[in-house]
């Protein structure tokens, strides 16, 4: 890692993919705490650069040469970019499967040793709601999207054992300003807790490949982070403060599609192949 002589920070330059997205916009504001330069990348429109510490680079993750150039002179990567909901396989393939491969290959070529990968709770979406799941529970992807995140996690394991690139795969629950329905009372991850978790994922020593659920300190969690204690992730927020509002404004859980499973509506999406 390159250290800036005047005001040392842990990283010189962090690449943030998916910077135009909901979480990308949040982390583009937060990452300057940890790096002198944040390189924000997406295919969708981003707010312009605010100076030499805030680089903007448009790139399609499906473009291998483009991603290789994107990763040049980078010390760490926060990889959020890709299709973030269930979609036909072909769309998932380009952005999430090929795209994540391109990110890891570029990291290998440029000597990047730390990646934070935005995985998803949909890797284990076919566990029943209320059942406790942890990072060692057998995966139960709930669609092509969840499968692509499981692939990304396996990619992280391979690149650690083969090339020593360390990754924290964050199986994000539901990260929005507030929970949008009753399921999210269990799955909600506040933005401050997201920022804290990404910081721990970047800074913790010897993470090898660690899988952690990105979830706030909610009253009725389904996920146990016992295998990620070494990260020092200590979420502070709790969806309970929104419970009355959510229960008043949204349908009972049993009337929501896919309510039997942790993945909720993702577990009933598709099929797409009959159109
Ligand atoms: P988002 O959909 O708002 O942002 C994803 C970004 O990726 C978009 O700006 C999009 O333009 C970009 N992108 C898509 N295809 C691309 C391509 N081929 N090349 C370059 N960029 C591309 O999603 P959000 O909510 O910000 O999520 C960020 C990441 O976290 C995603 O990987 C998502 O799967 C994951 N995640 C998010 C959760 C949440 O609750 N927000 C929950 C679980 C996982
Ligand atoms: C995800 O993986 C999605 O990216 C996000 O949009 C939410 O739908 C979230 O899961 C969820 O499970 O609520």
How would you describe this structure to a colleague?
α3 (89-110) links the parallel β4 (76-79) and β5 (114-120). The model has no long low-confidence stretch (mean pLDDT 96). The protein has seven helices and nine strands. With 275 residues, the protein is an alpha/beta fold. It has a single domain (11-268), classed as 3-Layer(aba) Sandwich (Rossmann fold), CATH 3.40.50. α2 packs across α3 (89-110) and α3 (89-110) packs parallel to α4 (144-163). The strands form two sheets. The protein has a seven-stranded parallel β-sheet, with helices on both faces. Strands 6-9 form a two-stranded parallel ribbon. It is 30% helix and 17% strand. The protein has helices at 22-30, 64-70, 89-110, 144-163, 184-187, 191-203, 243-249, and strands at 11-17, 35-42, 54-58, 76-79, 114-120, 133-134, 166-172, 209-214, 223-224. 1,4-dihydronicotinamide adenine dinucleotide binds next to α1, α3 and β5. D-galactaro-1,5-lactone binds at residues 84-85, 120-122, 174, 187.
């Amino acid at each position: 890692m390159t250290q800036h002589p005047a005001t040392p920070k842990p990283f010189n330059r962090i690449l943030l993919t998916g910077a135009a997205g909901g979480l990308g916009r949040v982390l583009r504001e937060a990452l300057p705490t940890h790096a002198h330069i944040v390189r924000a990348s997406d295919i969708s429109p981003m707010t312009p650069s605010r100076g030499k510490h805030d680089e903007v680079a448009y790139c399609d993750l499906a473009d291998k040469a483009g991603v290789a150039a994107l990763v040049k002179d980078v010390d760490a990567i926060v990889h959020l970019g890709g299709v973030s909901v269930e979609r036909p396989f072909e769309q998932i393939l380009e952005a999430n499967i090929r795209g994540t491969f391109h990110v890891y290959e570029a990291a290998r070529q440029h000597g990047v040793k730390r990646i934070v990968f935005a995985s998803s709770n949909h890797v284990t979406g076919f566990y029943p709601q209320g059942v406790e799941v942890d990072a060692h529970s057998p995966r139960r992807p709930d669609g092509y999207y969840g499968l692509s995140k499981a692939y990304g996690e396996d990619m992280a394991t391979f690149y650690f054992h083969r090339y020593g690139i360390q990754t924290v795969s964050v199986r994000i629950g539901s990260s929005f300003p507030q929970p949008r329905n009753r399921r999210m009372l269990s799955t909600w991850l506040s933005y401050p807790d997201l920022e804290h978790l990404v910081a721990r994922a970047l800074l913790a020593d010897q993470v090898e490949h660690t899988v952690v659920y990105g979830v706030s300190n909610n009253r009725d969690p389904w996920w146990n982070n016992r295998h990620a204690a070494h990260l020092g992730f200590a979420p502070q927020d709790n969806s309970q403060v929104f419970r009355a509002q959510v229960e008043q404004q949204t349908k009972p859980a049993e009337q929501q599609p896919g309510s039997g499973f942790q993945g909720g509506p993702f577990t009933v999406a598709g099929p797409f192949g009959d159109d």
